[in-house]
Amino acid sequence: MKQLSRGQNFLSLFAAGALFPLALAPFFLWPIASLSIAVLFWQLQHQSITQALVKASVYGFGLFFVGASWVYVSIHEHGFIPAPLAILATALFCLFLALLFAAPFALSALIPQTPSAWIIGLPAIWVLSEWIRTWIFTGFPWLFAGYAHTQTWLNGWAPVGGVLWLSFICALSAVVLAQLGQGKIAKRATSMAAVALLLLTACGYALQYKTWTVPSGQRLDVVLVQPNIDQHKKWASDSLPNILAQLKEQSKAHWGSDLVVWPEAAVPALSHRVRGFLGTMHQRAEASETTLLTGIPTYDSKQKKYHNSMIALGNVESERQYNKTRLVPFGEYVPMESVLRGLITFFNLPMSTFSLGADNQAPFTVQGENISTAICYEVVYPDLVARNSRDSSVLLTVSNDAWFGQSLGPQQHMQMAQMRALENAKPMIRGTNNGISALVDHQGRIYQSIEQYSQGELVGTIEPRNGRTLFSLLGSWPTVILALLSFFGLLMTKRTTKEAIHEH
Q1: Considering the entire predicted model, what is its pTM?
Q2: Hey, where are the domains in the chain?
Q3: Dist. CA 344–CA 353, nearest whole Å
Q4: Are strands 394-399 and 214-215 parallel, antiparallel or unpaired?
Q5: Closest by CA position to 486, among listed 43, 128, 96
Q6: Using CA atoms, how far apart are residues 387 and 381, in angstroms rounded to an integer?
Q7: Residue 26: what pLDDT?
Q8: 3-state DSSP assignment of residue 219
Q9: Which positions are catalytic?
Q10: DSSP assignment of 221-240, as one string?
Q11: Which residues pair with 224 in a beta bridge?
Q12: 459-501: pLDDT as tens digits
């Protein structure tokens, strides 16, 4: 029976982790986030370091195996890896993420095993687990609990503390649920935490009416070109003429708009190899007083480095190029390249030799409005976008989500872009190869989009906004520092208590 009980516990942890993605896009069943985390917190109590690590790993494996299942699509369909090997590679990737997720939870065994300590400590550990995933090994800041509240009453907190603060509140609700599930409703700490949650929710609702930024006074006419190029054909040399002709044709009716946006790597050739085409587009855009922004790989001949870039053509008032600063492992660069390059086909994907762009690159300026840029994966980094947004009135992200296929990936990616708009109270332009291309207002709401997996153009307007939110100024650091102080404060409390007992 003991062995069966352990198996049941592991199954419940895996199931709870696997259900967590239902709280996020495209399902938006936000209460599941708190319920899922509550199962983990309930099972972590009175565990050793090893036991806590194992249990959190099982939960994390369920979380990533479902929530990051799009990795299989990238590996199998676009990396040309046979299905059995692709499943194994996906499982190993998810296991690695699970261990990374679980590592901070092993420390839960070190804090006092009391309701009050757990109400403080477990949300702090959850936040630290998410924060670690934003930077270690270049970072994988995906599937954060706070994204469940992109469009709930709590989202008023986003311009204050960002997605990690929303994750903290979500984890706090989970630990209260875990305490209630153990019949500790009468405990003073549990009651106080429940009251705190009600106040935080009420404040979140009230903060929705706080005006953080103000309209700049003008509107920009924007056209998003969604070419929907098949990923299997995109980098074939014989496809280039047809792709260029398609981009040219889709843009023809829109010269005269303030801004035309082509997606990430829309031109599948190094910029110096298509100078003629780019020159023609520049002349047409300039003649019509239009700014054309396009994704394109570039080569720096002086430094001998390749970059995943956005370039500006036509009516441009300042910076003409932005180079991506956060690269996707294996997709844009290969870790331990000397060992892995050429080992299997997946480690030799097209354009997987990019270099990092410089920090603090200047924004594009269109009609006097500064536009900060995030290419694909960069938009999932809250602090990076916040830093770049400070002196901008519009946020822009471009992507090629064809790598995700018809999976959860594009919807999750879109939701994270919405959160960036909400955190910084600035409108977001999102242009993609195959969707979701959309215009997002300063409150993180999609007000215009084009059908996914289709070819077309989204024609709309955006209202630039000036000003800064508390989050754009301070980033995630207040929440991270609070979590660190809470955790280490509990450790010190436990140590002091033990010393006092020993003295008596």
Answers
A1: 0.92
A2: 2-211+475-503, 215-296+310-323+361-467
A3: 16
A4: unpaired
A5: 128
A6: 10
A7: 96
A8: coil
A9: 264, 324, 376
A10: EEEEEE----HHHHT-GGGH
A11: 261, 458
A12: 999 999 999 999 999 999 999 999 999 999 998 876 665 544 4
